[in-house]
Amino acid sequence: MAEKITLRVVTPTRLLLDEEVGEVTAAGALGEFTVLPNHISFLTILEIGEMSYRQGPDRHHLALSGGYAEVLDNVMTVLANTAEYADEIDVERARMAKERAERTIEEMSRDDEEFYSVEAALRRATVRLQVGGKEAKR
User: Fold this and answer.
1) SS3 9
2) pLDDT higher for 61 or 112?
3) How far is 129 from 54, CA to CA, in rounded Å?
4) Cα–chain-centroid distance for residue 49?
5) Around Cβ 40, how many Cβ atoms within 10 Å?
6) For 109, phi and psi rounded to 5 degrees?
7) The pLDDT of residue 137
8) Domain extents for the chain?
9) pLDDT by residue (tens digit) across 11-61?
10) What is the pLDDT of residues 93-104, one digit of tens each?
11) Is 76 helix (H, G, I), strand (E, B) or coil?
């Protein structure tokens, strides 16, 4: 039995990660899930949220803005729209984006064409702040 899985995180602009890890936790369409070695094969949609993985005693955190994850033969491949490590996040910029989205969404109704895109921007900024505030390890 394998004791590790290979985690690959790919965005349209880069291969962010290709490492052996002990476990991965992410936000899927049906809720948070954890993948361990020898996990059953599956494919899921990823929500805007935090993804973390463990390498030895260290836990690493990424902010994802959605995408897909496939688990197959002890390899988890994440295709993400964007993915950032905590130390890559400009916390002040994320804070301003969150405040701007909060102000905008207060003035809107759910019937506005832009409501759901502003709501997604708010979720992205919130996740970036959450991850950006964690200790950055790589």
Assistant:
1) strand
2) 61
3) 21
4) 5
5) 7
6) -115, 165
7) 52
8) 5-86, 87-132
9) 999 999 999 999 999 999 999 999 999 999 999 999 999 999 999 999 999
10) 999 999 999 999
11) strand
Nearest Cα residue to 124 out of 46, 63, 53: 63
CA distances from 136 to 23, 52, 119 (A): 18, 12, 27
Q: Compute the Cα dihedral for 29, 66, 8, 62 and give only its sign.
A: negative
Is it true that domain 87-132 has CATH number 1.20.5.440? yes
H helices present in 1-138, as ranges:
91-106, 115-132
CATH for the stretch 5-86: 2.60.15.10
**91-106 and 115-132 are packed helices; what angle lies between their axes, rounded to 10 degrees?**
150
Confidence (pLDDT) at 135: 61
Q: What is the distance between the alpha carbons of residues 121 and 87, in angstroms, rounded to a whole number?
A: 20
How many CB atoms sit inside 10 A of residue 41's CB? Answer: 10
- Look at residues 52, 14, 30, 49 and name the one whose alpha carbon lies nearest to residue 120: 49
- Residue 11, helix vs strand vs coil: coil
Q: Please give the structure tokens belonging to residue 103.
A: 């102000």
Residue 138 has pLDDT above 60, yes or no: no
Domains 5-86 and 87-132 share a fold: no
